[in-house]
Task: inverse folding
């Protein structure tokens, strides 16, 4: 098996007439779909290779194993999430709405992240890396907002962030209740669900006037 880097990725091999980058991107795209659908334990490298129109051996040439491939895919997805949902500490209800919009449009993204939380407990407990850096940055934003009077200082910033994230992903994490809402809610639209969670965050953390 080709030598791998510390990040779990091997040097990129090429074959005649084919771009290494294009093959690698096909592998990553196929892996994202496979992991979102089957989780890490249930994912199969042979299915990823088939979907990516390459060989199983070629997949292992780029990534030293399934966990390394998942880690790469998840890091890319979490980076995309952070870029798509910038937090304004003066408008936390709006931030919750942006998170809701993202996961409503990308249910596969939510599933992909959730599989990692369930199956890679050591990774979830990791205190370093891009995800933890993003969390630390948001906590600093919340502390700064408290220091200038935009957010109630009685709240611990870690609780603020955890509660907003949980409320914003309420419907992504409970599709069975979402299905029931389609015919049992007084207002069954997605817009009504969004409005409800934004209002919930507004009650907890009002927008700064």
Result:
């Amino acid at each position: 098996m080709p030598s791998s880097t510390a990040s779990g990725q091997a040097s990129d091999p090429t074959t005649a007439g084919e771009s290494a980058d294009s093959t690698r991107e096909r592998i990553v795209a196929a892996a994202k779909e496979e992991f979102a659908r089957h989780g890490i334990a249930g994912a199969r490298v042979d299915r990823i290779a088939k979907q990516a129109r390459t060989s199983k051996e070629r997949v292992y040439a780029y990534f030293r194993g399934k966990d390394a491939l998942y880690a790469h895919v998840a890091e890319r997805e979490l980076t995309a999430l952070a870029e798509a949902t910038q937090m304004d500490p003066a408008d936390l209800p709006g931030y919750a709405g942006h998170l809701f919009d993202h996961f409503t449009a990308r249910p596969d993204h939510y599933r992909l992240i959730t599989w990692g939380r369930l199956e890679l407990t050591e990774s979830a407990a990791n205190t370093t890396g891009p995800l933890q850096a993003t969390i630390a940055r948001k906590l600093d934003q919340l502390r700064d907002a408290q220091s200038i009077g935009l957010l109630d200082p009685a709240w611990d910033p870690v609780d603020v962030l955890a509660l907003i994230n949980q409320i914003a992903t309420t419907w992504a994490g409970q599709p069975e209740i979402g299905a029931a809402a389609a015919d049992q809610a007084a207002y069954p639209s997605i817009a009504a669900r969004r409005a409800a969670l934004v209002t919930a965050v507004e009650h907890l953390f009002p927008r700064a006037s």
About this structure: The longest helix spans residues 20-42. Residues 1-72 form a domain with the Tetracycline Repressor; domain 2 fold (CATH 1.10.357.10). The two ends are 59 Å apart (CA to CA).
